[in-house]
Amino acid sequence: MESELKDLNSKPVMTQQPDPTHDDASTKDDRPLLKSDSSSADNIQELEKKFAAYVRNDVYGTLGRGELPLKEKLLLGIALVTLLPLRIVLGMTVLVVYYLICRICTLFSAPNQEEEEQEDYAHLGGWRRAVIVRSGRFLSRSLLFLVGFYWIKETHKDSSNTEENSKTEGNNQLEEQERPGAIVSNHVSYLDILYHMSSSFPSFVAKRSVAKIPLVGLISKCLGCVYVQRESKSSDSKGVAGVVTDRVREAHQNKSAPMMMLFPEGTTTNGDFLLPFKTGAFLARAPVVPVILRYPYQRFSPAWDSISAVRHVVFLLCQLVNHMEVTRFPVYYPSQQEKDDPKLYANNVRRLMASEGNLILSDIGLPEKRIYHAALNGLFCQS
Q1: CB 64 within 8 A of CB 307
Q2: What distance in Å separates the CA atoms of residue 78 and residue 87, rounded to the nearest whole number?
Q3: Distances (CA, A) of 260 to 204, 252, 278, 299
Q4: Who's near 7: CB < 8 A, 6+ residues apart?
Q5: Is the pTM of this model over 0.85?
Q6: pLDDT digits (tens, 9 = 90+) for 276-320
């Protein structure tokens, strides 16, 4: 359910190049990435320097196909016959239970249909909405617990400790009564969705195909997801941007409306970098809540990047303990200049998140990610 809302008004702002002194991929890694000749290994290292935001630096290596140490092979083998089947059964049970709750709560209720192929049940009120939200938050956290996130470290930044907000602290006394319209977060993994569901149960931007996935489709409609077609170049994309902007504005003005959860980077990274922001989350001129997610690891990185979905799920479920750290910022109230210039608004929020969250700014995006993946797949096919 990866958010892919595109910036329809302009190209991404070119920003600071990744700092080579902080680029983990620029240092040579002694562990073997794959069994290949030295030329292929050199090519991979060259790719890692150029596309550092998408490089996997865990034990499992590039594409999750690295040569594993004997100890890791033993641990993986034991987990494959114990943890993996148990977690799959329990996880599917949680998913089915929540689907049944959503099915019961939406019986005899017509979905809200704002545009073609845009329908949801986020408008439901009363006991139906309360049951969907409360059970959704509880079961989302339960699912994270089942896959190894037994505790989640949360840090709440004080507005007085953030450089950007301290500049305008005196002007925000009246604005502090305003409700934010969206949560903006860096995007590291599909696990981000589960955390935000357990935390605030917002609406997301999702691929249109998600609405047709068994079980998950109805759940996404209860979340109030806005569906987009990544590859579509037709004029309906402008309608999608309008729906998102209206949703953000509605959440800002109406306390009973669900907030929008947007990943302005448009794709996932390895968690150490912050890509250029799309402006979709900032077009409504409403305040936003910045959030940073990190996944510390020793063996397998939960970051969903440069690895297939099946391989990632298997390795994740085979890891006994997983870790997540969350940094939540105070509400960011845009200045009048930022309201008039969504690109400036997006860029300022991005710089704040990078400086306060110790993330490296990168100027690459989804096209470069596709090039990197294609190059890696080509090198592995040759070996």
Answers
A1: yes
A2: 14
A3: 6, 10, 15, 33
A4: 278, 279, 280
A5: no
A6: 999 999 999 999 999 999 999 999 999 998 899 999 999 999 999
